[in-house]
Amino acid sequence: MGQGENPSNYILSDAISVATATASIAAFTSFSATPHPPLLHSPYESQKRRDWNHFGHYLRSQQPPLSLSLCTGAHVLEFLRYLDHFGKTKVHGQECPFFGTPNPPYPCPCPLRQSWGSLDALVGRLRAAYQEHGGLPHTNPFNATAVRLHLREVRDYQARARGVSFKKNKKKRPSTQK
Q1: pTM for the whole thing?
Q2: What pLDDT does residue 4 have?
């Protein structure tokens, strides 16, 4: 403090700085603590919305058009079979010489199908979208036993066709030596 300066000026200046900092922190924490809907959707949310719209279009294109309230696991299976025609994964048939071969040496005429992982993820997104649109969990057609069994069959068949196992290996516990 210099000569002739009033000490109360420093105290007042420090008090204003502290008050300003406190107000800034309070404004920041109240702003960040308030939940705001995101302006941009995550890639997952965007894909879920596209999948939901695609499924709705599929239901409306049926003859006669089908309402969501009448949709069952059988309709979901029809939708999955319909999507199977647009797949990008080579799935060898049992008559193919490359059935069970992970990396065949040359191309074969076997069809392209939806991979099990893609179908499983799709059903998961549609299951969530159904509930977000007011559907009850116990009436969710994407959670039907037939759909789960179909996914399991697709997974097992594709694993055999590609010579790959989806079975989880149990981790061995490290032995402790004394």
Answers
A1: 0.69
A2: 55
Whether 63 is in a domain gets the answer yes
Is the pLDDT score of 177 beyond 70? no
At 46, phi and psi to the nearest 5? -65, -45
SS3 track for the chain: CCCCCCHHHHHHHHHHHHHHHHHHHHHHHHHHHCCCCCCCCCHHHHHHHHHHHHHHHHHHCCCCCCCHHHCCHHHHHHHHHHHHCCCCEECCCCCCCCCCCCCCCCCCCCCEECCHHHHHHHHHHHHHHHHHCCCCHHHCHHHCHHHHHHHHHHHHHHHHHHCCCCCCCCCCCCCCCC
Cα 65 from Cα 52, distance rounded (Å): 16
Average pLDDT over the chain reads 80
In a domain, 120, yes or no: yes
- Specify if 172 maps to a domain: no
Number of structural domains (the chain) is 1
